[in-house]
Design brief:
Shape: globular
Strand order of the largest sheet: 3-2-1-4-5-7-6
Structural class: alpha/beta
CATH architecture: 3-Layer(aba) Sandwich
Strand content: 25-35%
CATH topology: Rossmann fold
Bound molecules: S-adenosylmethionine
Oligomer: single chain
Number of strands: 7
CATH class: Alpha Beta
């Protein structure tokens, strides 16, 4: 997760531009892991608040150990803390996490979004042969991911793919 090579095929500046941030927004990095992209967003946009959310305390300990985790616009949240942000997220980033999520998590992701909030979903594309990431059989093709999200109550706007990833925006239906 902290391999800097990732930035070549998952460029933080591109991902941040897709989030279409504005001052005062609340962004939840859903399944932040060690917070690599939460830190990138918080550093580039001091005027937004980034909630780095993960269900694994060990991941968040790795994040806490990073000096940038002390940025004043980062909040670190475990499941019991994320409830504070339900219905308040202007943006959710779900990076490399959809393939790990069960139905309850998708429900939670939807409930985190404000009424006009947008989730940006970027995940390993099962249809692409790639040297990185989980085995293809553990990931979704774009059509499967879209179907899953639509079933969970989202409407989808497809975006241009990255080298190894599909990309779409998801809104509450
Ligand atoms: C493959 S890592 C990706 C981390 C990060 N988004 C990145 O790209 O660097 C997936 C992360 O999602 C977290 N995760 C999986 N299911 C989750 C859930 N239901 N709620 C919160 N976090 C979850 C895992 O603990 C893991 O840290």
């Amino acid at each position: 997760m902290d391999d800097p090579q990732r930035f070549e095929y998952l460029p933080p500046s591109h991902i941040i531009s897709l989030l279409k941030l504005a001052p005062g927004m609340l962004v939840v990095d859903y399944g932040t892991g060690t917070g690599t992209y939460a830190i990138q967003i918080a550093s580039a946009h001091p005027e937004v608040t980034v909630v780095a959310y993960d269900e694994q305390p060990q991941m968040l300990e790795h994040l806490r150990a990073k000096p940038q985790a002390k940025l004043s616009n980062i909040r670190i949240a475990l499941p019991e803390q994320v409830t504070e942000f339900l219905g308040r997220a202007d943006r959710v980033l779900a990076l490399n996490v959809l393939h790990e999520l069960g139905d309850e998590a998708l429900k939670e992701m939807r409930e985190l979004l404000a009424a006009d909030g947008i989730a940006l979903v970027i995940d390993w594309n099962a249809e692409i042969e790639r040297p990185y990431g989980p085995p293809r059989e553990h990931t979704y093709a774009l059509s499967q991911a879209v179907e899953r999200m639509e079933t969970a109550g989202f409407s989808i706007e497809r975006l241009p793919a990255l080298r190894y990833h599909f990309v779409f925006r998801a809104m509450r239906r």
